[in-house]
Amino acid sequence: MKDNERELAALLITALNLEDKRVDDVDPAAPLFGEPGQGWGLDSIDALEIALAVQQKYGVELRAEDEATRRAFASLAALADYIAHQRAVQAV
Amino acid sequence: MKLPLLAPAEANAPLFLHRGATITRAQFAQAALELAARLPDAPAALNLCEDRYCFALAFAALALRGQPALLPPSGHASALAAVRADHPGAYAIGDHPTCAVELVLPRTAAPRDPAPRVELPALAADLCVAIVYTSGSTGAPQPIRKPWHALSHAGQELARRLLDGHGRCHIVATVPPQHMYGLEASVLLALAGGHGVHRGRPVFPPDVRTALDELPAPRILVTTPVHIRALLASGTKLPELAGVISATAPLPCELAERAEAQFSAPVHEIYGCSEAGSLATRRTLAGEPWQPLPGVTIEYQAGGCSARGVHLPQPVPLQDVLEACDGGFRLLGRAADMLKVAGKRASLADLTQKLLSIPGVIDGIVFQPEAGAAQDVLSRPAALVVAPRLSEREIRAALARLIDPVFLPRPLRKVERLPRNDVGKLARAALRELL
């Protein structure tokens, strides 16, 4: 797992109080949302919490109406890539 | 008796708005007539459209064809399969190319120029236009048939109560149109209330800001306590609002005060349920009483309260305990919440508040695992608690200092989070599973 993925996994675990999940056990490619029991099994209220946590930590605004954000929410790896890309764009 | 499908207004009044483009009343009428003509014959159809214009278009076309719109309680595959199993022969309409539906309405399709003086025919007042489902916080989802007069009545009365005096409003809603509150407080405020509605369903704070920025004043935000909390926490600056409307869960007074200060607009709540639709409203500040909508009366009985309405065929029993007061009623708690153990009474809402007051408890609920448990049987409530830094023993000890021991939840389980659904509600079945 890449460093930025580990950091983001830790942020999600804290922000969503996923106390039985450990950063080392996270599969970066697993889906974040969907039917309970698959991947992280998060719901739309969690999405709101993730958006707040990401905005506060990285200064990156997530927009659900944006197709790029929809893709970013596919997995931890996709979200980490999206945040890195947005921060690079903002830094220019 | 017949009732119009569209409230009377001038032909070029904007009904749906998005990114600077508008769909006028006449364009909508034309598109609905065209879609109705090409719908297949079927007993009913699932309306899964997320875009509010596409949803309303499918809704109107289905009504014109006399096919009830099935509005599933969530978009999960299991919920859709359950609704389809109940309605053999039904097809589904969606607005996303990837969704598994028989008919896709393209969101980008530009409506054609309407024929001069195009009008939608009126609908029979008692035509069943929608079947909605209870949210499941008081048991398994139940289907509820909605005649057109009931929905039309809700749209008109909500518009009169909450939007009067502003002229034609422009509404952004963060709730899905398939949910009873989202249906009445967005789509029907457009069709029956004559107001304009944003096509999107923004959820994240920056999306809400963008959607509101796209609309001319007066702007109205239709939302929930969860979204209001997120908007305040993110510090998002919204354009000038004429009002904020909240429902699905009680809005804490403190949150309403902060929202009124931040958004410089009054915050109103709607009280209702899937069975009866919107029943009453109030301005949340200072705990003002709830005022029933015109045509609604509340019956207060020892065994439980019920709502009567000109739009309801029979009284609807309410899940809440209501108390009449000057100018309306107060909400005392959920009736399924009232607990009687060893001759003592307590409300689960009260016990939950006590649980949440323990330092270190982040979220939690005290609830009755068995629906409809006999009132006088000694049945303890159960509790689920989110408290990463406390042990179950510490939580129990802290709670024992706050409440009568007969009400101590057993079992009391620590969980990582509560299974809240799309609108932040807790389904009893999901809670029971966690025990």
How would you sum up this structure in a few lines?
The complex is a heterodimer of chains A (about 90) and B (about 425). In chain A, helix 1 crosses helix 4 (about 75-90).
**CATH superfamily annotation of chain A:** ACP-like
Tally of DSSP helical segments of chain A = 4
**What oligomeric arrangement do these chains adopt?**
heterodimer
How many individual β-strands of chain A? Answer: 0
Q: Provide the spatial order of strands within the biggest beta sheet of chain B.
A: 3-2-12-11-13-14-15-16-17
Overall geometry of chain B comes to globular
CATH C-level class of the largest domain in chain B is Alpha Beta
Question: What does this molecule look like?
Answer:
- The complex is a heterodimer of chains A (92) and B (435).
- Chain A is built from 4 helices and no strands.
- With 92 residues, chain A is an all-alpha fold.
- Chain A has a single domain, classed as ACP-like (Non-ribosomal Peptide Synthetase Peptidyl Carrier Protein, Chain A), CATH 1.10.1200.10.
- With 435 residues, chain B is an alpha/beta fold.
- Chain B folds into 2 domains: 294 residues, ANL, N-terminal domain (Rossmann fold, 3-Layer(aba) Sandwich), CATH 3.40.50.12780; 93 residues, GMP Synthetase, Chain A, domain 3 (2-Layer Sandwich).
- Chain B is built from 11 helices and 27 strands.
- In chain B, the strands form 7 sheets. A 9-stranded mixed beta sheet of chain B has the order 3-2-12-11-13-14-15-16-17, sandwiched between helices. A 6-stranded mixed beta sheet of chain B has the order 7-6-4-5-9-10, with helices on both faces. Chain B has a 3-stranded antiparallel beta sheet with strand order 18-19-20, with no helix packed on it.
- The longest helix of chain B is centred in the middle third of the chain and has 16 residues.
- The interface between A and B is medium-sized, with 22 and 28 residues.
